[in-house]
Amino acid sequence: MKISQKDLGIKIGIDPSSASGRMNHYETGRHMPDLDTLKKLAKELDVPVNYFFCETEENATLACLIDKLDDETKRKLIQLLENKTEF
């Protein structure tokens, strides 16, 4: 995302003296951020919260694309997928 761990941490409200270390712990999986922190990260990175839980790059891409759709288009996509209509 072209932002340092420290800068990202500071932007979401982490004290500058510990921002880099905390963000590194989140990124490496040593610690899991709480939901409030995940929401702040998602907002700052312009991704949905569920992005952080995607296990594949394809799922992460889909999560981001779907999040940007309006509600009507989301309903149509759900119907399309539920009906397994040919694409």
From TrEMBL:
SMART domains: HTH_XRE
Occurrences of domain HTH cro/C1-type (ranges): 2-52
PROSITE patterns referenced in this protein's UniProt entry, alphabetically: HTH_CROC1
Molecular function as annotated in GO: DNA binding
Keywords noted in UniProt: DNA-binding
InterPro entries in UniProt: Cro/C1-type_HTH (IPR001387), Lambda_DNA-bd_dom_sf (IPR010982)
Record's protein name: Predicted DNA-binding transcriptional regulator, helix-turn-helix domain protein
